[in-house]
Amino acid sequence: MSISEAKKITDRLEGIDRCASCDAEIIWAKSVTGKSMPVDPEPIEGGNIVLVRNDSDEPPTARYEGPARQAYLKKLAERRRDVSKLFVSHFTSCPDAEKWRKG
Ligand SMILES: [Zn+2]
After folding, report:
1. Which residues surround ligand 1, an ion (CB under 5 A)?
2. pTM for the full predicted model
3. Nearest to residue 51, comparing CAs of 42, 43, 60, 59?
4. Among 13-17, 28-32, 68-72, 74-78, where is mean pLDDT lowest?
């Protein structure tokens, strides 16, 4: 087994995968309607998704938050001197997103 293969398996275990299009690291989550969706693994300023961990080995649930809730979570995080755990869908951040939409 090559090093890169070993790394791949470690990444898998942590729930990290790579975008087939731009090779960026992504986490697979499930939308509230149960569809698989790629999410960027790092929370960012201006994110609009909260990842809700599930008990089992199921991927986390990605829940979209409206502007009011985003602001609330940001304030909460600031109070804890933390960054708000708001993520963004890789469909939004992928440089090849156009290709995704075309299918
Ligand atoms: Zn991508």
Report:
1. 19, 21-22, 24, 94
2. 0.75
3. 60
4. 13-17
The most distant pair of C-alpha atoms in the chain lies apart, rounded to whole Å, by 49
Report d(CA 86, CA 82) in Å as an integer.
12
Can you say whether the dihedral through the CA atoms of 22, 24, 26, 32 is positive or negative? negative
Segment (H or E) for 3? helix 3-13
Q: Which residue has the tokens 């569809």?
A: 35
Domain count, the chain: 1
State the distance from the centre of ligand 1 to the C-alpha of 23, rounded, in angstroms: 6
- Whether 99 is in a domain gets the answer no
Give the CA dihedral 39, 12, 24, 72, nearest 10 degrees: 30
Range of the domain at 84: 3-92
